Amino acid sequence: MNLTGGIVLYAVLWFLTLFIVAMIGQKSQADAGEVVPGTPAGAPADLKVRRIVILTTVITTLIWALIAWVILSGIVSREELANFDRLFRG
Could you tell me the pTM of the whole model? Predict the structure, then answer.
């Protein structure tokens, strides 16, 4: 894995993790009982962006480190990935 591949992998993982973490523990305006006029009732009542970004970054860093270690240690090689489809052909 080169530097560009590592950065792209981290960015993709970060946004995928963000979409999951953003939904954890959220209450809608309808649940809170205070719907702001002009917004949908399903909008978040109290969005804690700082907590979401920090948690997303920590989780993504752990996942990225694990994937980078597997790639760089040689546990899985390119040849094995190229032949991966043969497992399902029978």
Answer: 0.77
